[in-house]
Amino acid sequence: MLFVHFGIYLGDNRVAHLMPDILPAISRDKSRIQTVVTNKRLIMGVLAKVASIRVDTVENFSHGASIVINDMVRKLTVKPLSNEEMATRAEKLVGSIAYSLLWKNCEHFVTYCR
User: Fold this and answer.
1) Where would I find the LRAT domain in this sequence (predicted)?
2) Would you name the residues annotated as active-site residues?
3) Is the CB of residue 63 less than 8 Å from the CB of residue 35?
4) Which of 21, 25, 49, 96 has the greatest CB tally within 10 Å of its CB?
5) Separation of alpha carbons 42 and 95, rounded Å
6) What are phi and psi of 5, to 5 degrees?
7) What is the pTM of this model?
8) Average pLDDT, the chain
């Protein structure tokens, strides 16, 4: 496994997640932007340091990979937000944002939402 991708399950087969994506930076066509992100779009997003927080189906989020439920909540000393509060926080952030592989990535997004 090269990397792990993090997301917040919103219910109804929907996942909010942050991923590098160049297309929102160069187009306003929502139908094109909402299509599944290709590797070329992802790599260009990493290089350009732009991303989007988006909501996709579980299938599109996983892109064929296995899904592992993160149970870190049991190990944290700070109690996480309720499921509803996490989902609300995630959905409020949907859209284009800056990206950093080290400092502002999908894991940071999930940590903030939790």
Assistant:
1) 1-114
2) 106
3) no
4) 21
5) 15
6) -110, 130
7) 0.87
8) 89
